[in-house]
Every structure is written in C-alpha cells, then in structure tokens.
Design brief:
The complex is a heterodimer of chains A (about 325) and B (about 325). With about 325 residues, chain A is of the alpha/beta class. Chain A has a single domain (about 5-305), classed as 3-Layer(aba) Sandwich (Rossmann fold). Chain A is about 40% helix and about 10% strand. Chain A has 10 helices and 8 strands. Chain A has helices at about 5-30, 45-50, 70-75, 80-85, 120-130, 150-160, 210-225, 255-260, 265-275, 280-305; strands spanning about 60-65, 110, 140-145, 165-175, 175, 180, 200-205, 230-235. In chain A, strand 7 (about 200-205), helix 7 (about 210-225) and strand 8 form a beta-alpha-beta unit. Chain A starts with a helix and ends in an 18-residue tail after the last helix. Chain B is α/β, with parallel strands linked by helices and about 325 residues long. Chain B has 2 domains: about 1-180, Rossmann fold; about 195-320, 3-Layer(aba) Sandwich (Rossmann fold). Chain B is built from 12 helices and 14 strands. A 7-stranded mixed β-sheet of chain B has the order 3-2-4-5-7-6-12, sandwiched between helices. In chain B, strands 9-11-10-13-14 form a 5-stranded mixed β-sheet, with helices on both faces. The relative contact order of chain B is 0.12. Classes of the chains: A alpha/beta (about 325), B alpha/beta (about 325). The interface of A and B includes residues 179, 313 and 317 of A. The complex binds thiamine diphosphate and magnesium ion.
Chain lengths: ~325, ~325
C-alpha cells in the first residue's frame, strides 16, 4: 500500500498545521494566556503525521504529556484542541483535562497521560478489545524514550506480544527525559532493541523523515491488522524546545540546539514534494495560507470560548446509572 | 534567628544532613538539576553525583532500590516530583517499606524519606495536583509529615532523615515561597508533635499544609467578628498528635478541620472521629470539615478555583459553628 500524491500533500498540510498551531500556542504561553505548563511538540511533527498516515478514523491513538501533535494528526479539531489548552468550555474535554490530558473518542484519540508510562497498558487494553471483537482496528501508542524505563513499558510489550495484540508501540526518541540525556538514563540507545526481549519486531526509523516514518508504520499497521501482533517502532527525532515552555535548557549546548533545527522535517518534505512534481511553489503558498487561516480561526475560536461554568467542576465524576 | 523561605529551608535541611552523615543521599528524577521546584538545586556542587543521583524514570524500581539501600544502612531521601507519581511506586512503599521492620520481627530499620510535592492551584490538571497524604497515613508503619512553615519544613526534614522509619514528607507547592524565621544553629522539629499556630478560646481549627495559612487568615476575620480561633497545625499527619487536638477542643468546645485533600475518608474524618471519641461531651456545636469535594482536580482555572477550599470557607464554617452571623 503506497501513499497517493494527494495523500502526501495532505500530510504536508498536516505537518504544517502541527507546526504553526504549536508555534502560536507557545507564543500564547509566553504571553501568559495558557494555564499550567506547555510541553512543545516542535520538531517532532513527522512522527505523528507519519504514523497517522496509515491509520483509519476508526483506529486509535494513545498519547503522552507531549501529545497535541498526535491528536491533530489523528484528526482532532484544532479549534477544540486549542480551546482545551486554554481551559475553555468548548475545549474537547470541557476544560477538565488541559494540555496534558486530552481525549476525543470520536476520532480515535483514546487519551493522554500526565503520568509518564501511564497510558501504555491502557492502550494495550484498547488493542485487546479490538482483537476480542474480531475487528481489524489497531492502536498506535506514543511514548518517549524515557518512558521506556518504566515497568509499564516492559509489562505492556510482553502482554501485547504473548497475546499478539494489534498495537504499534511508537517510541519518540528525542534523546531527553526532562533535563536528563538518554545516555544518562539507559545504556541501550536503540530502544528498538528492547523488542527482542519480547520477541516482536523492533524497527528504527529517522523520525524527522515523514515518509520513512510512514513506511515503517505501514508495515507495523499491516502486521497488527492481520493478527500478527505488535511492533516496537522507534523514531529518532529532536526536541527543539525545552521540556516545557520556559525551560531555559542550560543543560544543552548552543550547537546542539542549532543541529536540532537542521533536522527540520518540513522543508525536507516540501523539497521532496516539489521535486517530484506533487506540489508547485504556488501550491505551497496556498497550503501555507490555508494553514495560517486555520490557526487564526482556532485562536479566535478558543479565545472566544468562555471559561467553563464553575458548576461543571462537579459533573462527570461518575456516570449516571440507569 | 534568620529569615528564610520554604524552598531554601528544604535545601538547607538536605545539605546539613548530607554534611552530617555520609549515609545520607538524595535520589530522584533530575535532582541534579534541582527538580521542578528547585528543592535540590545546588546540592550536586557540594556533594557530587555519587550522593545526588539522577535516576531513570522508573519510580517503582528506584523506590524499591532506596528501600533496599535503607535496610542496608544508608539513609536515602527519594525525591518524587509530584505526589501523584507515588501511585506508580505504591508496592515498595505500602507492602514493603511500611511492613519490613514488623514482619521480620524488628530485625532492621527502614530509614527512608520520600520527599514529594502535593497540592493544586497552578492549573496543573488531574495528574499533577493531588493531595494523597491520607492514603499513606492509613498504612501502619509509614509516617507522614506536612510542614506548613519554613521552620517546620527544615526541622521536620532533618528529623525525618534521622528517623529510623519510612517517612513520607509532603510539601504543598503553594508554600514554596513562604517566608519565615529559623535558628542559625542545627535544630529539628520532633515528628508526632502538633503546633498551635495561633491561640484562641472559642473554636479550634485543625488545618494541614496550605490550609494552615488559610485558617490563620480566617482567624483574623473571625477575630473582627468577635470569635477567638485557635489554629492547630498537626505538622505530622501520622502518628497524629491527638493529645494536643483534644486538649484544644476541650478548651474551645468547637472544631473545624480543614485540608485541601478530598474531604471524604480524609484526615478531617480521622480528627473528627478522635474528637468524637475523646471529647464529645465538650462539644458545643457539630464538627465541620472543609476539604475538596469528591472530584478529581480539573485543569481549567475557573473549575479548579470552584473546587479548592479557601480561607472564606473556613471562616464561614467557623462562624456557623459559633452561631455568628455568616456574611453573604
Ligand atoms: C510517573 C511520572 N514520573 C515522572 C514524571 C515527570 N516527567 C514528566 S515528562 C518526563 C520526561 C519524559 O521523557 P520522555 O518519556 O522521553 O518524553 P518526552 O518528554 O521526551 O517527550 C518526566 C520525568 C511524570 N510526569 N510521571
Ligand atoms: Mg524524550
């Protein structure tokens, strides 16, 4: 199954939307408009978009504290996403979750977790339900390099392996867990090698190359859909910003930060699209203008959404039992 | 005496104990950099990475490791950035640390300190805002402390590190900038001893953590309404200094208990029960409890503010208990 030209252009648009909405959100955070912290996804967009390329609307993604790119790539409405980041009534969770805790079951976003590693076993459970019901739906579960040191990672991989569950464990290796470099937290720099311990495929891919990610995801999704079980897909990527917006990053050198940006997935993909005749310079401008409009619309929507009425704070603690 | 702040009180307490005893060490995620609230900031410069140790994000493993180190004679301080993350390492704490001395017939001690931040108010959402101290207080074998001032923060931390049992040291994020005075010299604050933060005669307000300051500010308003409130800060949640609380209630005849944690099945319930058992006949009014409704902590600032207990809530409850007109 290869990607059509239209699909590739759509992926480009998606990359750009993730980037521009993120830049805007960071700006709003710096301006004090965003409550709490913001964990920026800048630089990692190709992972979300590449993995989502082969997911259907009825497939699922599960995510982390750095999850907004995953949600958008899966199809979550940018307006409602940004409103949630601002804690507004029209946010996708009514302001209850905020940046770190979002779900939209309608587009297959299972949820995300502020607890590192917290979502892996839950995602494995959704994959179990997909299998149990004899569907061919699959789950893509995103997590960071540092999360792979949690017990939940190892336990979930083992369980998914032994029950051949339809899940992609997508490790976004950006080389850092907060302020700690990966090599200071683990000896194994290729996290994909951990797959061997559970007898599942472990694949390493350049996470800044959206087509490479998509290609690897295609295989893993194919395996999952056809009942062959899970894959551990490690995407080597770069975290451009601090752990959270405002992190001064004095634990990283200037050179390193500059190198990061050199890996920018967007110009790279744009170059490919132009070279292969899928996009003209004109079309590039058009996509860009459309994305800029979409971001402006999201900002307007989110800022115009009221703060949730205080009484809703007490709603939804329990379901209504009939 | 010197001026200090809550954050500095913790880091100074750590530094002094690290200095005093080579068996003391600090471990946790990004403690070398200082952690999210800078409580361990600067320690690595003095004590090196052997004693100020960054761990992988493996709470269950490093909590168990610290426990093993503790029974083998070290005195680890485990920094867990947010109390919410303790859920990931409940097994080493609850099934092992709390019970090892007891179930192995008192063969060894478990000198382990868990240093962790609780509390809401910063828009941190459901996974970074909880106050779970009552969970730990429910476990025999664990000690739980919750200092509300820089003085108590330092004195109790030093006492906890010197203590031979596992201590869960809970600080509220909202207190970190709190200023206060403390001695220049070495001092400790004993675990298990409450402190009367304000004396009064008409009503006892037992409050913990951040709520101590809310109670003190409510007490000022109450004074203006002619009510003299006594504010009791247990400082240690478990073992609870019931004697001080009961004596205060016997004197005032009224009780409000206030904390930020969920009200149901909480510390307020325990304090109320102790008073009911030991001083029911002294009560002139029903006991009131102030705490979070049974709800997770939402992200949006308006929702968070709607739920969190305030000084006004404490003041209102106290007025009701005293039969003084409640302002609308
Ligand atoms: C159980 C738990 N421990 C610690 C934290 C604090 N924390 C939040 S993100 C993070 C680093 C995660 O690194 P990684 O998994 O590589 O993801 P990245 O941030 O790089 O995307 C840490 C330690 C947490 N939220 N939950
Ligand atoms: Mg990382």
């Amino acid at each position: 199954m290869s990607l059509s030209g239209d699909k590739k252009v759509e992926m480009y648009r998606s990359l750009l939307l993730l980037r521009k909405l993120e830049e805007k959100t960071v700006e709003m955070t710096m301006a004090g408009q965003v409550p709490g912290w913001l964990h920026s996804y800048l630089g990692q967009e190709a992972v979300a978009v590449g993995v989502a390329a082969y997911l259907r609307l009825d497939d699922f993604v599960a995510s982390t504290h750095r999850g907004r790119g995953h949600f958008l790539a899966k199809g979550l409405d940018p307006n409602r996403l940004l409103a949630e980041v601002l804690g507004r009534q029209d946010g996708v969770c009514g302001g209850k979750g905020g940046e770190m805790h979002m779900a939209d079951w309608n587009v297959g976003v299972i949820g995300s977790s502020g607890i590192v590693g917290g979502i892996l076993s839950t995602a494995t459970g959704v994959a179990f339900a997909c299998q149990y019901r004899d569907t061919d739906r699959v789950v893509a579960c995103f997590f960071g390099d540092a999360a792979s040191n949690q017990g939940s990672f190892h336990e979930s991989l083992n369980l998914a392996s032994v029950w051949r569950l339809p899940i992609l464990f997508v490790c976004e290796n950006n080389g850092y867990g907060e302020f700690t470099r990966q090599q200071d937290a683990m000896r194994v720099l290729d996290i994909a090698t951990r797959a061997q311990a559970y007898d599942i495929p472990g694949v390493i891919v350049d996470g800044d190359d959206v087509l490479a990610v998509a290609g690897a995801a295609a295989e893993a999704v194919g395996r999952a859909r056809s009942g062959e079980g899970p894959t551990l897909l490690e995407c080597k990527t770069h975290r451009w910003s601090g752990h959270y917006t405002g992190d001064p990053q004095d634990y990283r050198s200037k050179e390193e930060l500059e190198d990061c940006r050199r890996a920018d997935p967007i110009p790279r993909f744009r170059g490919y699209l132009i070279e292969s005749g899928l996009l003209t310079e004109e079309a590039v401008q058009k996509v860009e203008a459309e994305v800029v409009d979409a971001v402006a619309a999201a900002v307007e929507f989110a800022l115009n959404s009221p703060l949730p009425p205080p009484e809703t704070a007490l709603a939804d603690v329990y379901g209504v039992t009939q | 005496m010197k001026d200090s702040r809550y954050i500095r009180a913790i880091s100074e307490g750590l530094a002094e104990e690290l200095d005093r005893d080579g068996n003391v060490l600090v471990l946790g995620e990004d403690v070398v950099e200082g952690g999210p609230f800078s409580v361990t900031k600067g320690l690595v410069g003095r004590f090196g990475t052997k004693r100020i140790r960054n761990t992988p994000i493996s709470e269950s493993a490093f909590m168990g490791l610290a426990l093993g180190a503790a029974i083998a004679g070290l005195r680890p301080v485990v920094e867990v950035m947010f109390m919410d993350f303790l859920t990931v390492c409940m097994d080493p704490l609850v099934n092992h640390a709390a019970k090892m001395r007891y179930m192995f017939g008192g063969q060894y001690s478990v000198p382990l300190v868990v240093l962790t931040a609780a509390g809401a108010g910063g828009g941190a959402g459901p996974h970074h805002s909880q106050s779970l101290e009552a969970w730990f207080a429910h476990i025999p074998g664990l000690k739980v402390i919750m200092p509300s001032t820089p003085y108590d923060a330092k004195g109790l931390l030093k006492a906890a590190i010197r203590d031979d049992d596992p201590v869960i040291y809970v600080y509220h994020k909202g207190l970190l900038r709190q200023a206060g005075q403390m001695p220049e010299k070495d001092f400790t604050v004993p675990i298990g001893v409450a402190d009367i933060k304000r004396e009064g005669t008409d009503i006892t307000i037992v409050a913990t953590g951040l709520a101590v300051h809310q109670a003190l500010s409510a007490a000022v308003g109450l004074q203006e309404a002619g009510v003299s409130a006594e504010v009791v800060d247990p400082r240690t949640i478990s073992p609870l200094d019931t004697a001080t609380i009961v004596a205060s209630v016997k004197k005032t005849g009224r009780l409000v208990v206030a904390h930020e944690a969920v009200k149901g099945f909480g510390i307020g319930a325990e304090v109320a029960a102790v008073v009911a058992e030991e001083a029911l006949d002294y009560l002139d009014a029903p006991i009131k409890r102030i705490g979070l409704p049974s709800t997770p902590i939402p992200f949006s600032p308006t929702l968070e503010a709607a739920l969190l207990p305030t000084a006004d809530d404490i003041g209102r409850a106290a007025r009701e208990a005293c039969g003084v007109a409640v302002e609308q």
